[in-house]
Write a structure and sequence with these properties.
With 457 residues, the chain is an alpha+beta fold. The protein is built from 13 helices and 19 strands.
Length: 457
């Protein structure tokens, strides 16, 4: 079939979107209340896999089985095997979502229905992640409809706990390593760099969430009687936090800063412009690590952010010196640091700066990952996306946020390539989550072209 077949598969993807077939399929999935952080929705998790996804995948020629790990970890493992000598692609997605937040959406929108408003399509999961994995699976169907086969093997891993931190994912990948063996992971999550520019990212930054506590004494004591005589936990913790970054957000803890920005990363980010699109905050040129571009600061460097701070009662402050103060901070980091080392490095820094009363504990963490841009799969995907869209894709060494990509790298040993079908202003994790019609349609065409090319050898 050659080029004519490729063009037909891409055209079929566009037709399915324009005819409303894809959105009808997606609306059925959005309607399911798969809120993994909500205990009352626990009974919705397995049915998304057994009642919705498994029958759909059977229609694409997949054999599927459901694996559970603990009470919160539910996984669908699917396989379409066409030949022992063919390449194998692992596709990942998650069917769980954050709470729907019904009643908080503008104009009374129902989070469990797709509501169009111009280019925007509102609904919980439209961007994260039902819309994205639905694009990839529908694109497989477009290739099958035109060619009758894929020309490669596909394995699929869908989980229902990503919004909880993916409980059981690492264990399942370790236990099912043979069943999930593949040549490459190709998946979709997170946002494009901008709505107009197709994007590839090759991994994700690591993340560690830490709790810093200054516990100086039990209770609080009158600020008139004791002010100037006893230490204030809020003051101690405030100065401890100030030692971690400077006044412009530059990370100051040696051992947590990258040694340098690799030349490969600098080259990849040379033409990358960071913009969240309409409604996003403006990038501040003088915030963060000096001497780096905005793209280098978010995709190539480490950052530490204070997420929450507590001392006393801000709503009903008492005239008393707090004996305890605590803060939660998040370190995002690139390849070169092991998250298990973060707690001792930070504690040594605080001790050395006279803040030994502040103790550090890790809440959770995961490592950074980055597939080399020289990997043959990267060039192959870049060229396919360029051919389909007529655009130069942005190539990011890693996602600025964090995905469970370390599991696929460390447990399955895979190169990883992510092609997001969303954009930064999508309001994921908030009321009014939405996706853009143009991004979804182009994503369908882009993935149909890519899967055609992989099958063509």
């Amino acid at each position: 079939m050659g080029e004519n077949g490729r063009a037909a598969a891409v055209a079929e993807a566009g037709r399915q979107y324009d005819a409303g077939e894809f959105l009808a399929l997606l609306a059925r999935r959005v309607a399911r209340h798969t809120e993994s952080p909500v205990a009352a929705s626990a009974g919705e998790m397995r049915p998304y896999l057994t009642d919705e996804m498994a029958p759909y995948l059977a229609g694409l020629g997949f054999d599927s089985r459901i694996v559970s790990h603990g009470e919160r970890g539910h996984f669908l493992l699917g396989t379409r095997h066409e030949g022992d000598g063919l390449p194998t692609v692992l596709i990942y997605g998650h069917g769980d979502v954050v709470p729907g937040m019904a009643g908080a959406w503008a104009e009374g929108r129902d989070p469990w229905a797709i509501t169009p408003d111009g280019e925007r399509l509102y609904g919980r999961g439209m961007a994260d992640n039902k819309g994205q994995h639905s694009v990839n699976l529908a694109a497989l169907g477009c290739v099958l409809k035109v060619r009758g086969r894929l020309g490669f093997n596909v394995k699929l891993l869908l989980e229902m706990g990503e919004e909880l931190g993916s409980p059981g994912l690492r264990a399942v990948c370790r236990e099912e390593r043979a069943a999930l063996a593949a040549d490459v992971l190709i998946a979709s999550d997170g946002p494009r760099l901008s709505p107009e520019r197709p994007t590839l990212f090759l991994g994700s930054r690591g993340a560690v969430r830490l709790r810093l506590v200054a516990h100086l004494r039990e209770g609080a004591h009158h600020s008139g009687n004791w002010g100037g005589l006893i230490s204030n936990a809020a003051t101690v913790l405030t100065h401890a936090l100030a030692s971690l970054t400077d006044a412009r957000g530059r990370l100051m803890v040696e051992g947590l800063r990258p040694v340098a920005l690799p030349a490969e990363v600098r080259a990849a980010l040379a033409d990358v412009e960071v913009s969240g699109g309409p409604g996003a905050p403006a990038v501040e040129p003088d915030w963060g690590e000096p001497g780096l571009s905005p793209a280098e600061r978010v995709f190539g460097w480490n950052t530490l952010e204070i997420l929450a701070f507590s001392a006393g009662n801000i709503r009903q402050p008492a005239a008393a010196i707090p004996g305890t103060a605590e803060a939660v901070v998040m370190l995002r980091f690139v390849v070169g640091l092991d998250w298990h080392d973060v707690e001792p490095i930070l504690q040594r820094h605080l001790d050395a700066h006279g803040f030994g009363a502040v103790r550090v504990t890790v809440a959770d963490g995961g490592n950074a990952t980055r597939t080399s841009s020289a990997d043959p799969w990267v060039g192959r995907v870049l060229e396919s996306v360029r051919l389909t869209t007529g655009k130069k894709p942005a190539l990011l060494p890693n996602f600025g946020g964090t995905l469970p990509n370390d599991v696929f790298v460390e447990e399955l040993g895979l190169p990883t390539i992510w092609l997001p079908h969303s954009y930064p202003g999508c309001n994921q994790h908030a009321p009014d989550e939405h996706n853009l019609a143009g991004v979804l349609r182009e994503g369908l065409e882009m993935m149909a072209g890519l899967f055609w090319d992989i099958g063509a050898g």
